[in-house]
Amino acid sequence: MMNLLIASVAAVAVSSVAALQPQETHAPAPTEAVTRDTRISGEAIREDLAILQRVYTELHPGLYRYRTPQEIAKGFDDLEAKLGELDLIKNRK
To answer: pTM of the full predicted structure?
Structure first.
């Protein structure tokens, strides 16, 4: 059940992030190509997770219809813990 919650969080956030970004007439050129081998810093992942949580809690109209605020917060905490277990957000410089 928690995996479904995490997947739902990710899907809604991805579609909602655009609403918080200023609209540009053209996409900025990437500074370097991102591949599946690209390492993302732990800090960048933490920042992305914080944005995901903010977007989800501020924009989802029915977020607390079937889950309490505590359950939603626990889902985000569990997601961060799982990323830590995968050694993705450990202190890396």
So the answer is: 0.55
Return the residue matching tokens 């500074």: 31
* 86 assigned to some structural domain: yes
Which structural domain, as residue segments, surrounds residue 58? 1-14+41-93
* Position 30, amino acid: P
| Cα gap 4→11, rounded to integer Å | 10
CA distances from 7 to 19, 22, 33 (A): 20, 26, 26
User: Each residue of 25-76: pLDDT tens digit?
Assistant: 555 566 777 788 888 777 888 889 999 999 999 999 999 999 999 999 999 9
Q: Tell me how many domains the chain contains.
A: 1
